[in-house]
Amino acid sequence: VSTTKENNEKEELLDKDRAHLWHHMSPHNDHPHVFVEGKSSWIKDIDGNNYLDGMSGLWCVNIGHGREEVARVAAAQMSKLAFAPLSQSHVPAIELSAMLNEWLQGDYKIFFSNSGSDANEVAFKIARQYFAQTGKGTKYKFISRYRAYHGNSMGAMGATGQAERKVKYEPGGEGFKHAPPPYCYRCPFGQEKGHCKMECAQAIDEMIEWEGEETVAGVILEPVITGGGVIVPPPEYLKEIREICDRRNVLLIVDEVICGFGRSGEKFGHQNFGVEPDIVSMAKGMTSAYAPLSATAVSSHIYEPFKEKGKTNHFRHVNTFGGNPVSCAIALKNLEILEREQLIKQAKDKGKYVTERLAGLTELSLVGDVRTFGLIAGIELVEDKKTKVPASPEKVANVLAMCKKQNILIGKNGDTVPHHNNVITVAPPFVTTKEELDLIVETLYVSIKNANK
Ligand code: PMP
C-alpha cells in the first residue's frame, strides 16, 4: 500500500514528465507508464506492478534485465578509462572488434557508432566511397524493401520502406529505392507460398537493370523483416539476392540490428541462410541495451581502397560516442554471458517451442497468419481469413491493452495506420522460462479471442 508521501512523490514525477519529457513515437500522454527496475524477463513500474517484458524492451534486452556483473564491468571500465577517441585506439574496442570477427566467421573491419541508424548511415557512406575510390563513382543508389525499417536519420529513413514513418519528414536522403518484400502471406506477385519463382528476388534484379547497374551501390536488407511485420522470406531468398549482388557488382548490406546476437537462433540472422554479406550493421543485442553501441562490419576487401597512407581516401567520418570504452566493455561481457549460458541455443529451442505453441492460435477467427524466426513471433490479425482484410488498429490496440492488463507486454508492427499495423510481435529475452512463454501464449490466445467480440 503506497503512503501519501509516495503518492505525492509520484505525482510530482508525473508532473515533471508532462512538463519536460518528449516521448518517442507516441502521441502526447498525460499518464505515462513509468518503469523503475527490471530483473530477468520482468520489469516493474512505479506502482510496484511487475510486467513480463515480451518484447525485450525494443527487441534488445536479450540477456534479460538486472545483470549485476554487467554493472560491475561498466563501473570498472568507467573508473579505469571512460573515454578515448577511436581515431586512436583503446583496449575494449580492440578486443570487441576481434570478438565480433569470430562471431561473424569472416574477415571484417569493424567501425563503431552509437545506434542502429548510425550503423546503417556508415554502411551507406562506406559503400559510396568504396565505389568512388575504385573508379565507379556513379554507383550511389541503395535498394531496400517496402515494410523494412532501417532507422530514423535522413539516410536510414530513406532506406526505410514504411511510408507512415516518413510522411512530413521527407525528403530524406537521395537515391533510396524500394522493392516489394518477400511477403508470402500477401504475395505482391499473386503467388502462393512455396509455389513461386521468387519473383520478389527477381524484382530486385530487374530494379537494378531499370535503375542502371552503374548507379546502384547496394542492397540493404534484414535477414527477416522484423519491425515491419515479421516477414520471413523463402529459404533460398537471401542466397538469390547474394547471387544478384555478385553478378551486378552491388554490395549486400545486411541489417542485423534486431536479428543479430542470437535473436535468430544463430549468432547472426544471415547465418541461417548460408550467405556472406559485404557489410553487416548491428546494434541492440550487441550490449543487450545495457549501453548504446552499434557497429558496421565491413568485409576486408572493401577496406582495401581506404588504406593508402597520407591521402584523403580514409573514411572521413567520426562520432564522439561511437565505440565508447564502457559500451565496448559491456558488449564483451554481454557476448561472454550469451556464450557461457548458451543463450543462443536457448533462443533457438525456445523459438521452436513458441512456434509449436502459437500454432494453436490459427484456430481463432482473427488470426490470419503466424510467422516465427528464432525467438521472434509475428501474429497477423485479419477481419476475415479469406479476404485477409487487415484487422482494425482498434482491435490490434485492444489485444495489446488486454495483454498489458494481464501484465504481459507485447508489441505490434508499424505506426498507427490501418493495413500496416495488424501484426502482433513477440520477442522476449532469451532467459524467459518455458512457463513464462506459456503465459505469453495463453494470454495472447484469450486476448485475441476477446478482441473479436
Ligand atoms: N535497423 C533495424 C532493423 C531496426 O529495427 C532499428 C531499430 N528498431 C534500426 C535499424 C535503428 O536502430 P536505432 O533505433 O538504434 O537507431
Characterize the structure shown.
The protein is of the alpha/beta class. It has two domains: 140 residues, Aspartate Aminotransferase, domain 1; 272 residues, Type I PLP-dependent aspartate aminotransferase-like (Major domain) (Aspartate Aminotransferase, domain 2), CATH 3.40.640. The chain is built from 13 helices and 15 strands. The chain has a seven-stranded mixed beta sheet with strand order 4-10-9-8-7-5-6, sandwiched between helices. The chain has a four-stranded mixed beta sheet with strand order 1-2-3-13. The longest helix is centred in the C-terminal third of the chain and has 18 residues. The relative contact order is 0.14. The model has no long low-confidence stretch (mean pLDDT 96). The site of 4'-deoxy-4'-aminopyridoxal-5'-phosphate has 16 residues, from helix 5.
List keywords for this structure.
single chain; 453 residues; alpha/beta; Aspartate Aminotransferase, domain 1; Aspartate Aminotransferase, domain 2; 2 domains; seven-stranded mixed sheet; 36% helix; binds 4'-deoxy-4'-aminopyridoxal-5'-phosphate; transferase; aminotransferase; Aminotrans_3_PPA_site; pyridoxal phosphate
